[in-house]
Amino acid sequence: MVALPDTIPNLIEGQAVPPASGEWLDKLRPADGTLLCRVARSGAEDVAAAVAAARAAQPEWAERTPVGRGEILRELALRLRSRREEASEIVAAETGKPPELALAETDAAVEMGLFVAGEGRRYYGRTTTASMPHRTVMTVRQPLGVAGLIMSFNTPLPNIAWKAFPALFCGNGAVVKPSEETPASAFFFGELAHESGVPSGVLNIVQGIGAVAGAALVEHSDVDLVSFTGSAATGRWINETAGRRLAKVCLELGGKNALVVCDDADIESAARWALASAFSNAGQRCASASRIVVFDSVYEAFRELLVAGAEALPAEPVISEASLERILAAVRRAAGEGAAVLCGGERLDRPGWYLAPTVLEGAAPDAEISRTELFGPVTLLFRVRDLEGAIALVNDSPYGLTAAIHTASLHRAMRFAEKAQAGVVVVNGGTHGSEPHMGFGGVKQSGTGWREAGIEALDVYSDWKVVNLIADPVRT
Ligand code: NAD
Q: How far apart are CA 158 and CA 156, in angstroms?
C-alpha cells in the first residue's frame, strides 16, 4: 500500500505551501472509511497567490516555441509513465478503485500527454487568399493567459491530464483546483510537472472545497478561462459567475447515457458492454450507461444476462458517505414510486462506502431517477417496441453526452448515429471509453459545446488570430 504524506498542501510557484487559513480537511479512504491524509483547506487568499504566480510566469512560457513547450510536456508524460505504479497506487487509495483500473487510467493520462506534446510539431493554422491582390491571410493560435482548471474526482489523473496538458501546451499559465476527494494524485502530477521542467508558477495547484477554493478561482478577475469538469449544477453556477465578467468558460458536465439493445443484437456482447459501462468505476463515469433500452422481443433474455452479470460483479466503493447516501435515497424513492429493484439497492454491511451493482426496471421515463444523474453503480432497464421508440426514449433526457446501440443492421446503426442527441455515439460497444485523439463532450445539459481531448481541445485553450499580410503595398 502506498505511503502518502500526512498532509497534502498547495503547489504555488513550484513550492509546497500550506493553506493561509492553517486549516486542513480530512480525506478518508473510500475502501474502508479510514483517514488517508489531510488536505489544505484553501481560500481566496491562496487562490489569489496561485493566480498571481500563473500570471507572472505565463509570458515567458508563452515566448517558448510550441516545439519547446511540447518537449517539456513530453518529459512530464514520460516521467508519469516511469512512475505509473506509484501514481496509480495513490489514485487507488484516494478513490477505492481496483489497482488495474487505476493503472489503466494512469496510462491514459500519459497517452494524453504524449498526444498533446506531438502537437508541438503540428499546431497548424490556415492560410487563404483575399480579394485584394498580393494579400495573404493566415490564422495563428494565441494563448489566453491564465486558465482556471476545475475537475471531478472520478478519473483523477486523466481529468487533470485532459486539461493541464493542452492548457500548458497552448502557452497558458494554469491554476488547478482538483476535487477535494483526490488531492494527492493532483499534487503528485504538479510535482512531476515541476521536476520535468515546467517553470515555477506555470502550473499551480490549489486544494480545497469546491464552494470555497473553486468558487474563488471562478470569481477571480484575472482568470481568463475557466475549464470545468463536474456536475451540471456546479457548471451552471460557474457559467453564470464567470460569464458575468465575459471570461471564456468550457463546461464538461454529466450524462444519463443510454445503451440500446435491438432484437438483432448479439445480446451476450451487449450485456458485457452494458455491465462494463454501467458498473466499472462504481458507475462514477460521466459516460456510464445509466439507462439500458431494450427491444421487447429480447427484453427478458437480456434482463436475465444483465442481472446475472451484475450479481457476479464485485462491489466497488463510491467516493464518499454523502455520495452513497444520496444514491441509496434516490433508489429508495424510485422503489417507492413503483420501480422494481432487480439486484443491489442496499448498502453492504462492511466498512467503506459500498453499494452492490444495482439494476432497476419499471421506472417511468419522466421519473426523477430516469432523468437525474446518480454517478453510482445503478442502471435502469426500459422496454421499447422498435428503433424509433428507442431513439425517442434516448433523446427524452436533459443530458446528451454519449449513447450506444447494439445491432447487426447498418441501417439501424446509421439511423441511430444520426438521430441520437449525444456528443459521442458508439455502435456495438459501451457508452464509455475515449482516447486522446478523439474529441469528447456532449450536447444539451452535458456541456456548452466545447470538446476536450483531440485537437479540438486546442480550441478551448487558445484564441485564433487572423493575420493579413500585404506583400506588395506599392503595387496594391
Ligand atoms: P462537482 O460539480 O461536485 O465537483 C466538481 C469539481 O468542482 C470539484 O473539484 C469541486 O470541488 C468543484 N466545485 C464544486 N462546487 C464548486 C463551485 N461552486 N465553484 C467552483 N468549483 C466547485 O462534481 P463531482 O461530484 O466531483 O463529479 C461528478 C460530476 O462530474 C458528474 O456530473 C459527472 O458526470 C461529471 N463529469 C463529467 C465529465 C465529462 O467529461 N463530461 C467527466 C467526469 C465527470
A: 6
Q: Cα–Cα distance between 106 and 237 in angstroms, integer?
A: 30
Write b or e for each residue in 100-131: b if 16 or more Cβ atoms lie within 10 A of its Cβ, otherwise e: ebbbebbbbbbbbbbbbbbbbeebeeeeeeee
User: Which ligand 1 atom is the nearest neighbour of the CA of 254?
Assistant: 34
Our answer to whether residue 37 is catalytic in this structure is no
> How far does residue 320's CA lie from ligand 1's centre (Å)?
14
For residue 230, which atom of ligand 1 is closest to its CA?
30
Catalytic, out of 89, 94, 252, 373:
252
**Would you state the pLDDT for residue 475?**
67
Contacts of 202 (CB under 8 A, 6+ apart): 54, 57, 58, 61, 168, 173, 174, 193
Look up 252 and say whether it is catalytic: yes
Task: Give residue ranges with CB within 6 A of ligand 1.
Answer: 150-154, 177, 179-180, 210-211, 214-215, 218, 229-231, 234, 237-238, 252-255, 286, 373, 375, 401
Nearest ligand 1 atom to the CA of 152 is 26
- Tens-digit pLDDT profile for residues 55-102: 999 999 999 999 999 999 999 999 999 999 999 999 999 999 999 999
> Cell digits for 322?
454523502
Check residue 199 and report its DSSP letter. Answer: P
Return the number of other C-beta atoms located less than 10 Å from residue 41's C-beta: 19
Note the pTM of the prediction, 2 decimals: 0.97
What are the cell numbers at 260?
A: 440500446
Which ligand 1 atom is at minimum distance from the Cα of 179?
9
Write down the pLDDT at residue 472.
82
- Which of 231, 373, 452 for a ligand 1 pocket mutation test, highest count of atoms within 8 Å of Cβ? 231
By most ligand atoms within 8 Å of CB, the mutation choice from 163, 234, 250 for ligand 1 is 234
Spatial distance between the Cα atoms of 239 and 262, rounded to a whole number of angstroms: 38
pLDDT at residue 289 is higher than 60: yes
Average pLDDT, integer, range 280-293: 98
The per-residue pLDDT for range 332-383, each reduced to its tens digit, is 999 999 999 999 999 999 999 999 999 999 999 999 999 999 999 999 999 9
| Cα(63) to centroid(ligand 1), Å | 33
Evaluate whether 289 touches 259 at the Cβ level (below 8 Å).
yes
Which tens digit of pLDDT belongs to each residue from 89-146? 999 999 999 999 999 999 999 999 999 999 999 999 999 999 999 999 999 999 999 9
